[in-house]
Amino acid sequence: MPTIGVAIAIPEPWATQLQEYRASIGDATATMIPTHITLVPPTECEDLDEVEEHLQAVAGVRAAFRVHLRGTGSFRPVSPVVFVGVVEGISACEQLAAAVRTGPLASELEFPYHPHVTIAHHLDDLTLDRAFTELAGFECRFAAEEFHLYVHDEQIGWQVDRSFALMPTDVVT
Asked: Rounded to two decimals, what is the model's pTM?
């Protein structure tokens, strides 16, 4: 049974910048995880066709939206994670995540949903503090015009299986 995830990809050049930063501080998972905002965390999937149909239906009724990433935050002490924060597009991410986590992807989350971009995970406190400080000034803006279904491969990590375009809107231009 494949393991899948659903996420909004961070566009270039920021995706590579954040992924390379994550790798540079010793996060061993960085090269296997594309830079993203999670909508559905890793989930075992019984019927990929059903999931794809569901995601297409969700995308067909959700509009594209603006995302503004800025500054850093942390989930410590609950979870050893430092992230770049979503400061615009929070409610749109929350609504999209809630919509995709229905039907065949309905599940209870371990933690309340909080859109973010992980930049350091499962590292020592000094390295997490370093990431928090060094990327505090990070900022970018982009249009979230699609989201992706990722499938996990043990050898190469998370790979896009399919993309789902959100409805066009003048708001993101």
From this structure: 0.94
